[in-house]
Amino acid sequence: MNDLLPFLVVGITTGSVYGLAAMGLVLTYKTSGIFNFAHGAVAAVSAFVYYDLRTLRGLPWPLALAVAVIVVPPLIALLMERVTRSLAAGTAATKMVATIGLQLVVMSALLAAYGGAALDFPGFLPTDTVTVIGVYVGIDQLASAIVAAVGALGFFAFFRLSSMGVRMRAVVDDPDLLELSGTSAFAVRSRAWLIGCWFAAASGVLLAPQLGLDVLLLTLLVVQAYGAAAVGLFSSLPLTYAGGLLIGVLAALATKWVSHSETFAGLPPAMPFVVLFVALLVVGRGRLAEIGGHRPAPASRPLVGRATARILAVAAIVLAAGIPIMADSKLPVYSAALVFVLIFASLQLLVRTSGQVSLAHAALVAVGASTFSHLSAGAGLPWLLAVLLAGAVAVPVGMLVAIPAIRLSGLYLALATFGLGLLLERAVYGTSWMFGATNTLPAPRPGLFESDEAFYYVLLAFAVAGSLLIALVGRSRLGRLLRAMADSPTTLSTLGLGVNVTRVTVFAISAFVAGVAGALYAAQGQSATGAPFLSYTSLTWLTVLVLCSGLRSAGPPLAAVLVAVVPAYLTDDTFAQALPVLFGIGALLVALYEAGAARRRGTGQAPEEPSGSRSDERLDAPGPAAQRLTAVRKARRAQAGPTRVRVGVGLTKEVTR
Q: Which of 249, 250, 248, 230 is nearest to 240 (CA)?
């Protein structure tokens, strides 16, 4: 037991800060219905503000700390409240994309301003050690744990006993009734966002001395809070704080237990994601009702009609065929863009067609890349067979990602898939099953197409074939079922159609295309590595796809150009660093537009349909519930085929009803 005490103490000190951050996250979610993916970005902003004022400008540490923790959070809280209020009528995906876009903006801006290297954080707490139950503990760690515990206790008492705490609970249940009682729901939500941002800011400056001043690490703080919030069922503040302690202790103990194991060396940092994934699966949908309700997706009509989208897609193929003549030294950039066409097409099948939000897509592409290397360079299989088998191996992983989709939906499905993607990244990428300790594996090109120009046309053929496959799925009976499932999965189940089978099927198809894309990505660079496929890459891909989703089938090619081609032509570093910020702002604006369109439809002010689109052919078209139900019934009758009816004595004929 004495051997475990140091790890328990360390786990409690760090876990208490995780619990503090998670309580702020849960508070804002309970009062606004918005799960703030940018919560960790708030912590990072406060930590960097303190660093800037203390180190770069030489202010006394009490003044720098007061500005970072007391002055900055209210400004962020006002912005967050205003944005989230505009998102109230949006879908779960719309709300997630908006806060993910905010996170991308903040993270990219901090990286541009301070760089990606870790900086020395100017600590403000004493670093001497004291003995606690026979274990030496730093005073700074002990103070952090005490501050977090006192803050959590005071917050719980405030939420339960004070009149404002009662109003915060009331604004969740019925904001209109709260307004009738003479209390402003805006004021209540603003105070909730203020407290949540204060907690995030405090967590950032308390963890920065332990983690270092690193943009990505501090932004990932919120991921630790995800697991703690899941333990508290995204509603209970005491259980949320206890979840933070649990994650801290488990991560510390895992460090001791797997310290000599190469296979499980990545388990300690992945422990929060294990807790998140397991908690969401064990609890299930019954006790995880989404605050603010569930609204079907998609939320708005595309910007162009079907005919226009097809013309744009064909034009993109024609232009791509002539790229080798004009690209010259930039040809590898366009080759990479062709791979991204497949990646975005497979993601669009999930997000826009079936309404399933997956944040583990980068992990599926990484599985395809590593598998291709093992099969082609390792086992010596023929190149084309290795590519197809790489896609096939990604299918069971995609079906594993689909397991949460059977029990969860909306926000909780996104969190579960994000946790699974992070788990694969932290615990599996570095093993011999994938990229190994060197994180780099050889990936050959086919013998007859080794040159850049020849291999470009191979990638073009795969991009066209994969896009056609996704288009055929969208126009097939399965596509109609997917759109009906996105519109109303309950209605689909009531009509006797297999929702769970449909969900698993769409994840499997998307995973196959993503796995093939991973193999082609590795072959294009002639090496397979996990560096391009980090979990936060999935968030970036989602924001860019949403930014281009109004173009229907032309969306994936445009998204591929934005991700792969545009940065290669930005010779000015300032513009290159500003590009992710523009992606985030664009995704936020699209989310706000879709939420506004949904709000207008709720008041009978539907936006005009663009020319070329036909709402009578679309199961995802917004309209009355009866119209959507009729569309689903048509899909079911299409499955049954023609029916023989009696029209007279001895006469029958086939009709389709």
A: 230
CA angle 277, 272, 260 (to 5 degrees): 115
Give the burial class of 244: count Cβ atoms within 10 A of its Cβ; 0-12 exposed, 13-18 middle, 19 or more buried.
Answer: buried
DSSP string, 325-339: HHHGGGHHHHHHHHH
CA–CA separation, 391 and 385 (whole Å) = 10
- Backbone φ and ψ for 130, nearest 5 degrees, come out as -130, 165
CA distance 288 to 357: 17
What is the distance between the alpha carbons of residues 65 and 59, in angstroms, rounded to a whole number? 10
* Beta-bridge partners for 132: 135
Collect all residues with Cβ–Cβ distance below 8 Å to 211 and sequence separation of at least 6.
217, 218, 221
Asked if residue 95 lies in contact with residue 575, where contact means CB atoms within 8 angstroms, the answer is no
Task: Please say whether the beta carbons of 636 and 497 come within 8 A.
Answer: yes
Residue with tokens 């009702």: 289
With a CB cutoff of 8 Å and minimum separation 6, the contacts of 488 are 296, 625, 628, 629, 632
Copy the structure tokens of residue 556. 């994936």
Per-residue pLDDT tens over the stretch 321-368: 778 777 778 888 999 999 999 999 999 888 878 778 888 899 999 999
User: By C-alpha distance, which of 137, 119, 305, 94 is closest to 212?
Assistant: 119
Length of the chain: 657
- Domains of the chain (ranges; CATH) run 5-256+263-287 (1.10.3470), 306-569 (no CATH), 625-655 (no CATH)
User: DSSP code of 150?
Assistant: H
End-to-end CA distance of the chain: 72
Q: State the Cα–Cα distance between residues 595 and 353, nearest whole angstrom.
A: 18
Which residue, chain included where needed, has tokens 């208490």?
Answer: 16
> With left for phi above 0 and alpha for psi between -120 and 50, is residue 552 left, alpha or beta?
left
Residues 32 and 84: beta-carbon distance below 8 Å: yes
Q: Tokens 């096939």 map to which residue?
A: 392
How many Å apart are CA 643 and CA 637, to the nearest integer?
9
Other CB atoms within 10 A of residue 322 CB: 9
Cα distances (Å, whole numbers) of residue 337 to 451, 547, 563? 17, 17, 8
For 568, counting Cβ atoms within 10 Å of its Cβ (0-12 exposed, 13-18 middle, 19+ buried), the class is: middle
List beta partners, residue 213.
119
* Per-residue model confidence as pLDDT tens digits over 28-70: 888 777 888 888 888 889 999 999 999 989 899 899 999 999 9
Report which secondary-structure segment, H or E, holds 131: strand 129-132
Segment among 190-194, 460-464, 468-472, 552-556 with least mean pLDDT: 552-556
For 607, which DSSP code? Answer: P
**Cα angle: 108, vertex 358, 550; to 5 degrees:** 75
Euclidean distance between CA atoms 539 and 99, whole angstroms = 11
Per 3-state DSSP, what percentage of the chain is helix, strand, and coil (rounded to 5)?
Answer: 75, 5, 20
pTM above 0.90, yes or no: no
Spell out the residues 6+ positions from residue 619 whose beta carbon is closer than 8 angstroms to its own: 480, 483, 484, 487, 628, 631, 632, 635
Q: What 3-state class would DSSP assign to 374? A: helix
Phi-psi region of 134 (alpha: psi -120 to 50; beta: other; left: phi over 0): left
